Amino acid sequence: MPEGDTVFLAGRRLDDALAGKELTRGELRHPRLIGHDLAGRTVENVVSVGKHLFTRFDDGRSLHSHFRMDGSWHLYRPGRPWRGADHEIRAILAVEDRVAVGFRLHDLELLPTDEEDRFVGHLGPDLLGEGWDDAASDEVLRRLRADPDRELGTALLDQRVACGVGNLYKAEICFLLKVSPWTKVGDLSDRQTEDAVSWSRKLLLRNAWRPEQSTTGDLGEGAQHWVFERGGRNCRRCRDVVRVARQDDGTKDAEDRVAYWCPTCQPGPHPDVPRVRGGRRPQQQTGRRARY
C-alpha cells in the first residue's frame, strides 16, 4: 500500500493541475457512481489526509479516493496517450490543459464535503498535515503508548495512531531506532517512542515533494533504503545479512505485512529465520510510487 508521502505528492500535483478550473469532462466509472457527471463543476482544491484524497468541487461535494494496493492517479496533456488499460479506469477529470485519470481506485465515493470525516474522522493526526504542531505530536505519542503490549511495527502501521506510515517507513524507522519491529511499545524508552514519532514525520517530509523515497540520504538506485526490500543482502551499517519475515498485525491485510530488519543492528524479539544471502522477500505488492 502506498506511503503517505506518495498520496501527498499525488494530491499536490492534482491540486496544481485542477484547482480553480472548470471540468470539461467529469466521468466516474466506479460501479456505485455510474451516471454521475461532474462536467461543468469547478475544482476548489485537492487535499490529502493520510492515505486518503479528497477532490473538492464548487457545489459542496467531494470525490474521495484511496489507492489501496495498486490504485493511482495519472496526469496527461490533452491528446497524449494514457498509460493503462481502459477497463481499469475509474475516474476521468479533465480541464482545458490537463486530464487526470484514476486507475484501479477501489474506493471511490462522492459525498458532501462537510461529511469527509466519515472516512478520516477515526484517524490519528496526519504526519504531513499543515496543522502539525506539538499538540499533534503529543497526541500521537499518547496513542502509541496506549497499548504497551503491541509490537512497534504493527503500531506504526496503525493509521488510528498516526496516518501516513506504510511498510517502507515502518522498516526504516525501526532500523533508525535500532530495535526489532517485534519490540513491544512498552519496552521502548521515552526517548525511543519520541524518536519514533519524530522519524515518522521527518522521513515523510523528506520525500513528500519528490518521486524518490530515500531514507539514507542517497537517491542512487539500490541505495535509498537501509533495510526495506533488502532481505538476504548485507546491512549497510554492520554487513550482517538483512532478514525478512511476515509480521501479523491482526488485520485483513496481515498476509501482506512484511518486516525487514538487521538482527545485529536491531536487537530484540524476532522470528527464527535462516541467514540466507541473496534470499528473496516473500511476494507482496509494495508501496511503490504512483505514476502521474
UniProtKB/TrEMBL annotation:
Chain ranges of the FPG-type domain: 226-267
Entry's EC annotation: 4.2.99.18
Superkingdom, natural source: Bacteria
GO BP field: base-excision repair
Chain intervals with Low complexity compositional bias: 281-292
Keyword tags: DNA damage, DNA repair, DNA-binding, Endonuclease, Glycosidase, Hydrolase, Lyase, Metal-binding, Multifunctional enzyme, Nuclease, Zinc, Zinc-finger
Alphabetical list of Pfam families matching this protein: Fapy_DNA_glyco, H2TH
UniProt GO MF annotations: class I DNA-(apurinic or apyrimidinic site) endonuclease activity; damaged DNA binding; oxidized pyrimidine nucleobase lesion DNA N-glycosylase activity; zinc ion binding
PROSITE patterns: FPG_CAT, ZF_FPG_2
Occurrences of domain Formamidopyrimidine-DNA glycosylase catalytic (ranges): 2-102
Region: Disordered, residue numbers: 270-292
Keyword Hydrolase: yes
Keyword Acetylation: no
Classification via PANTHER family: ENDONUCLEASE 8
Family named by the database record: Belongs to the FPG family.
Record protein name field: DNA-(apurinic or apyrimidinic site) lyase
